[in-house]
Specification:
Blueprint (H helix, E strand, L loop, with lengths): L3 E7 L7 H11 L5 E7 L6 H7 L3 E6 L13 E2 L1 H6 L4 E5 L2 E5 L2 H9 L9 E5 L3 H12 L3 E6 L7 E2 L5 H6 L2 E4 L25 E4 L8 H8 L3 E3 L2 H16 L1
Parallel strand pairs: 1-2, 1-3, 4-6, 7-8, 7-10, 8-9, 10-11, 11-12
Antiparallel strand pairs: 3-5, 5-6
Helix pairs in contact: 4-5, 4-8
Length: about 240
């Protein structure tokens, strides 16, 4: 029986990277009595019962679609998580549930080396929990951000509004939608790829497949492309540091 239990909270997460990553990490570190498991919740309202039932849990990661919804079930937020408005890491400290956001750390460290001086404006495709961390980091880097949504509000753009001018003026494109994730690898965001040039940087938070259709379309046109694997590894390592603090 594991003495130190950790896990992932999300919906339909059997595909997840985290369980395999942390299980291997525990093994590589020679940590006995450590386990990591998936907690697939049909509804976030089941979260309190999960934590109360598994009183030996010490830390949790949070993924789609609960990064924002889980916040109302926490006792405290790290200042960065509060500013971002999304949580992907929870430290269970006695009876206290403390929320953090390590997506921001992972994204900043993984995109930094690819940014160039002309990368001053970005389009973020999707408006879910992960997109909040992306917008926060880009803002901290001095890059102006515009969200693209299927159902845009007054501060966002719809996909139909994307044209040559918009893409020329936004050389950084970040896909925060699940479109293209295995097994639906033929899907991709509905943007006018013909207007992408070698001035663009395309970043996809998806890591499986390694090269999504979104990234392939950018690559065809000479754009720099980055997938989400390194970001995922870095955010997981930062979560581990938080749990061990």
């Amino acid at each position: 029986m594991a003495k130190h239990r950790f896990g992932l909270v999300g919906k339909n997460i059997s595909y997840s990277f985290s369980k395999g990553y942390f299980t291997k990490k525990f093994s590589d570190l020679g940590l006995e009595g450590y386990s990591y498991e998936n907690f697939d919740l049909p509804h976030i309202g089941e979260f309190p019962a999960l934590v109360e039932t598994h009183s030996d849990l010490q830390g949790l990661n949070v993924t789609i679609p609960y990064k924002q919804e889980v916040m109302s079930y926490l006792d405290a937020l790290d200042s960065q998580a509060e500013n971002i408005g999304a949580v992907n890491t929870i430290k269970l400290d006695g009876n206290r549930r403390i929320g953090y956001n390590t997506d921001a750390y992972g994204f900043q460290k993984s995109i930094g080396t690819f940014l160039k001086s002309h990368h001053t404006n970005a389009l973020i495709l999707g408006t879910g929990g992960a997109s909040k961390a992306i917008a926060y980091v880009l803002g901290q880097m001095g890059i102006a951000v515009t969200y693209v949504s299927r159902n845009p509000d007054t501060s966002q753009m719809g996909y139909a509004a994307l044209n040559r001018s918009v893409l020329q003026n936004h050389p950084v494109l970040v896909n925060c939608t699940p479109l293209g994730t295995h097994p639906n690898i033929d899907q991709k965001p509905n943007i006018p790829y013909s207007h992408i040039t070698d001035k663009h940087l395309l970043f996809d938070l998806i890591y499986n497949p390694e090269k999504t259709e979104f990234l392939k379309e950018g690559e065809k046109r000479g754009a720099d492309t980055v997938n989400g694997l390194r970001m995922l590894q870095l955010q997981a390592d930062r979560a581990w540091e938080i749990w061990r603090e």
